[in-house]
Structure formats: structure tokens, C-alpha cells
Design goal:
Elements (H helix, E strand, L loop, with lengths): L1 H18 L3 E3 L2 E3 L3 H40 L4 H24 L4 H25 L12 H36 L1
Antiparallel strand pairs: 1-2
Helix pairs in contact: 1-2, 2-3, 2-4, 2-5, 3-4, 4-5
Protein name: VUT family protein
Pfam family, one: Vut_1
Keywords: Membrane, Transmembrane, Transmembrane helix
């Protein structure tokens, strides 16, 4: 189930980004798929918890291939597909390694690793894919607002995920003590 959630959330993020106009709040512009990208880091951490770091890298490669294929089939340009693949690989790898090395409760590892992964994903994708360096969808003046908007959304999702995971852990811990 964890693997399915991870892979489906990545595919849905691509589909939702292609199907819906970006959200705009204040000066920030956030593609709709960003709402799921924060969750993909959480799902990846759950996969790693169950299957370990080595197998998780196999699932990251599968997710990368699926994401690139779906992005291409939805009509994204090659530079967008490439930017997405680079940012995905960098963010997922970083998230995996931070999650592995932190000696903290799971909820904090999820939050911190996802925070860094989300930051890298946002910066790399926007600069390589959307700025004048890439597909030239955004002028340089808009790049910071798009990056910051994505980071805000991904951080909120990571925070909510960490809170939910900590609460689930407390409930499970109480259940073990009463048995």
C-alpha cells in the first residue's frame, strides 16, 4: 500500500499540474500538483521505513521513470521533463539520506528530510524548468515568488504529515501499553 501511495501521488501530481491552473496567493504562484509533492516525501519515508534504504532507491527509480513518462505524455516539453527528473532525483535522494541519518523520532525525520527535499525540488525545478534558462515560462522577477510559494506549501504539508504521524505513533504506543 505504501508503494502504491508513493507512486500514485507522483503520477497524480503531474496530472493535476497539467490539468489545473496554478494557485495564486498574494505574490506566490503554486502549481496545483505541488499539493501532492509534499506528500510524496512522506510516502517515500513510509516506504523506506518498511523496505529499507536500498529498496527505496529502486522505488525512486521506478517513480522517476513513471513521472517522466507521464509528464511527457501530458505534453510537457523535454526541458520540463528533464528539469522535473533532475529535481526529483536530487530531492528524493537527499530526503532519503537525511531521513536515514537523523537519530530522531520518525515524525521529526519526516519533517526535516522533507523540508530539505521540498526546498531542493522547488529551487531546482523552477530554475531549470520554468525560468529563462529552461522553458522560459517565467521571467526572472517571478522566479523567487514561485520558488517561495512552492516551499511554503510543501513545508505546510510536511508539517501536517509530521503531526499526523506523531499522533498515530502516540495512539499505537498507548494501544501497546493497554494490552
Amino acid at each position: 500500500m505504501r508503494i502504491a501511495l508513493y507512486l500514485v501521488s507522483i503520477i497524480l501530481a503531474n496530472v493535476i499540474t497539467a490539468a489545473f491552473a496554478p494557485l495564486q496567493f498574494w505574490v506566490f504562484i503554486v502549481p496545483m500538483g505541488t499539493l501532492l509533492i509534499g506528500a510524496t516525501f512522506i510516502f517515500r519515508d513510509l516506504v523506506q521505513n518498511k523496505y529499507g534504504r536500498k529498496k527505496t532507491y529502486l522505488f525512486i527509480v521506478i517513480a522517476l521513470i513513471l513521472s517522466a513518462l507521464v509528464s511527457f505524455l501530458l505534453g510537457d516539453t523535454l526541458i520540463i521533463v528533464l528539469a522535473s527528473a533532475i529535481s526529483f532525483l536530487l530531492a528524493e535522494t537527499t530526503d532519503t539520506e537525511i531521513y536515514t541519518r537523523l537519530q530522531l523520532p520518525m515524525s521529526w525525520r519526516v519533517f526535516y528530510s522533507g523540508l530539505v527535499g521540498g526546498f531542493l525540488d522547488s529551487v531546482v525545478f523552477v530554475i531549470i524548468g520554468l525560468s529563462p534558462i529552461g522553458a522560459d515560462f517565467l521571467p526572472w522577477e517571478a522566479v523567487p515568488a514561485v520558488i517561495i510559494g512552492q516551499i511554503i506549501v510543501k513545508t505546510v504539508i510536511q508539517g501536517l504529515g509530521a503531526i499526523v504521524l506523531s499522533q498515530v505513533h502516540l495512539v499505537l504506543e498507548k494501544g501497546h501499553k493497554t494490552n
